[in-house]
Amino acid sequence: MGAGHTHRLHRHGDSPVHALPPHTKLAAVLAFVIVVVSTPREAMWAFAAYAVLLAVVAYAARVPAGFLLKRLLIEVPFVAFAVLLPFVAEGERVDVLGVSLSVNGLWGAWNVLAKGTLGVAASVLLAATTELRELLHGLQRLKLPPLLVQIASFMVRYGDVITDEMRRMRIARESRGFEARGIRHWGVLAKSAGALFIRSYERGERVHLAMVSRGYTGVMPVIDEVAASRAQWSYALALPCAALVVCLLGWTL
């Protein structure tokens, strides 16, 4: 995990949220999501309060609303699933604009939309303020199994390598006048996929041999040991602590 690696979700900045150690932000987002999931679905005002808390974090991190909303489109499949719930769920029915809907389905749809959207928004803010390399360091700092951290590290690094290889192969096909227009061209695409697999496998072997020749024994060295002060932990945990207060009020009111 030596060299830096950026990603499209990350937004460079020098805000106080960007400056927090990655493991504190990971712990804060995990705790926030757990609190949100634990909130009763009937406490609608609580989810509005959670949204306000995330908006405050986004403001402190200088993450524009447009940037956040575009990244929230990743949850569109879950939204489609939630929209179908009132129509297919069983139980008590209610008429809405002349359409018979399930009460349990309506509550279920609201539950999925509210909690899913808040969870995705928190994850997007985490990714926007933390580089992938720092996230991996944070996972390592939180004592995640080293093998899982290594797998994630290799996946991040060589995902772009394979994508770039696919791009070069596509350019090579197009330079020879090839353009996929129908089923009869699937054979060429299948051969390209096979060639990509072989190239990726061979590159993986070469990388492994290079790592072994440099002393790799199955454990990645820790280059940057990042520690967090009490003030940084307090700043990071302010979000889940405030959310916990809202959750408790949601259960009692």
Supply database-style keywords.
single chain, 253 residues, mainly alpha, globular
The parts where pLDDT drops under 50 for at least 5 residues are none
Order of strands, main sheet, comes to: 1-2
Q: Element order, helices and strands?
A: HHHHHEEHHHHHH
Number of helices: 11
Instruction: Give the termini distance in whole angstroms.
Output: 48 Å
Query: Could you tell me the mean pLDDT?
Result: 86
Q: Strand fraction band?
A: under 5%
Helix content class: 55-70%
Q: In a few lines, what is going on in this structure?
A:
70% of the residues lie in helices and 3% in strands. The protein has 253 residues and is mainly alpha-helical. It has a two-stranded antiparallel sheet.
